[in-house]
Design brief:
Length: about 375
């Protein structure tokens, strides 16, 4: 009988690909990666931590959103800031699962030099689900990706059976920790992504764990722990294409060329998107250098930082008295005085004049 799924192939997991066909895509991905790393060298000390925090927040929000989990951005930012030693003023205390997600992301990247093991994966899975479903390989029920109404379901993928899953996972980990000589690091990340998500070893959280493993592989490739681009953010942008690419790659063939071409294109796009985040981080530093002598209270700094973090056009409608009062937890009269003082010092400029529609932007937002 012909195999239906990649793991049923008699030579699984002896993957193949066309290196010549992958050459141009790999070159473009490397070029984009190098550009981001070059921009990253412009960041020093606290600026580097700010950029890393922005990427981690984006990664945490998007890797969860791919699986349908929506976390409060402020809570994710709070967890990241606490772990990186950044300011958490005005940020909420995150829930345990948010802290767990950030813990996994940081351990995968900052701890990239330590071997990956089943125990470490189980700890990651347990951190994602601190109130249950923790750290156990999936049960005997068949693992299927299914769509459609009852009676008319379509099986997009079926994972390997539970029996023998430990040995399958052990084989993956042995390859990941000691990959073949000469295997390009970006291709290794793409193979690891497909291989682990195909095994689907846990009841839940496999997608997030897959992307954490991919980030770990990329950190190992760059030999640095601070991720400067978010692959999850790019995957979320093309989520339907991601599902289609996985489904095609998990068919009966061991040829990963189409999957790796798709993966390399997403890496290139993710790097391109990160240029904006680094530029925003540098812009934030430039702002505070420009207004280093401004006499601002904590409320005003918090509001200005929120505008800076949102980036150009990111804070819809600008900063109004109502938004300022809600953001800083102060009264509207105090908000009005604070905003007027920010305008007086040049930190904000009015978008509209007077009345209820009064709103304010950063100086360069209206240049």
């Amino acid at each position: 009988m012909e195999p239906s799924w990649i793991w049923q192939h008699p030579h699984w997991p002896e993957f193949t690909w066309d290196s010549l066909a992958l050459g141009p895509a790999l070159g473009l991905a490397r070029l984009a990666q190098g550009k981001v790393l070059g921009m990253g060298r412009m960041l020093e000390g606290r600026l580097s931590a700010e950029a890393l925090a922005a990427i981690l927040v984006q990664e945490g929000l998007t890797t969860s959103a791919i699986e349908g989990e929506r976390y409060d951005p402020a809570a994710v930012r709070s967890s990241v800031a606490r772990r990186l030693g950044l300011d958490t003023a005005g940020l909420p205390n995150p829930r345990r699962e948010v802290d767990g997600l950030v813990e996994v992301l940081l351990d995968a990247t900052l701890g990239f030099q330590r071997p990956l093991s089943q125990e470490r994966l189980e700890a990651w899975q347990g951190a994602l689900f601190p109130t249950g479903r923790s750290g156990q390989l999936r049960g005997d029920a068949a693992m299927q990706v299914v769509s459609g109404r009852p009676g008319r379901e379509r099986v997009h993928f079926q994972g390997p059976p539970r029996q023998g899953l430990e040995s399958e996972l052990e084989r993956f980990l042995a390859w990941f920790n000691a990959p073949p000589d000469g295997l390009d690091g970006l291709l290794r990340a793409g193979v690891a992504h497909l291989w682990f998500v195909t095994l689907h070893p846990f009841e839940d959280g496999n997608g997030r764990l897959t992307r954490a493993i991919t980030d770990m592989a990329l950190a190992q490739d760059e030999r640095r722990g601070g991720r400067l681009f978010s692959l999850s953010a790019q995957i979320l942008q093309v989520r339907e294409g991601y599902c289609q690419a996985l489904e095609a790659a998990q068919g009966p063939s061991l040829d990963l060329t189409p999957w790796l071409l798709w993966f390399l294109e997403q890496l290139r796009a993710a790097c391109a998107a990160t240029e904006g985040i680094i530029a925003q981080t540098l812009g934030k530093a430039e702002f505070w250098l420009r207004f280093r002598d401004a006499d601002l209270n904590d409320r005003q700094r918090k509001a200005v930082n929120r505008l800076l973090d949102a980036g150009p056009g990111g804070f819809e409608g600008g900063m109004s008295t109502r938004k300022y009062a809600a953001l800083t937890g102060t009264s509207k009269p105090t908000a009005t005085r604070d905003l007027a003082d920010l305008v007086r010092q040049g930190c904000l400029v009015p978008r509209h004049q007077g009345g209820r529609s009064a709103a304010y932007d950063l100086p360069w937002s209206v240049d």
